[in-house]
């Protein structure tokens, strides 16, 4: 599943440059994650980089966008042209 940024976000700007897929952008009030681009860093890293750098721990899994590791890997391949 993809990740989501909660209302606890303090707009510190550290997550956006860490996303290898460009899935994180500034929303109207807080940063947001595009579920079509988020692979939880599958294919790039062992752990989601945005979660690793977030100082307020506000990036949980998004229960509305459930995907298996295999589905995330397929998305990674499509996004990177490795398919």
Key terms:
4 iron, 4 sulfur cluster binding; alpha+beta; transport; 83 residues; single chain; two-stranded antiparallel sheet; 2 helices
Query: What is the number of domains?
Result: 1
Q: What is the correct CATH architecture?
A: 2-Layer Sandwich
Structural class: alpha+beta
Shape: globular
Strand order of the largest sheet: 1-2
Highest CATH level, the class: Alpha Beta
Number of helices: 2
Domain 4Fe-4S ferredoxin-type: 1-29, 31-64
Organism: Halopseudomonas xinjiangensis
Protein name: 4Fe-4S binding domain-containing protein
Keywords: 4Fe-4S, Electron transport, Iron, Iron-sulfur, Metal-binding, Repeat, Transport
Please specify the SSE layout and strand pairing.
Elements: E1 24-26, E2 31-33, H1 49-53, H2 69-80
Antiparallel strand pairs: 1-2
Protein name: 4Fe-4S binding domain-containing protein
Domain 4Fe-4S ferredoxin-type: 1-29, 31-64
GO molecular function: 4 iron, 4 sulfur cluster binding; metal ion binding
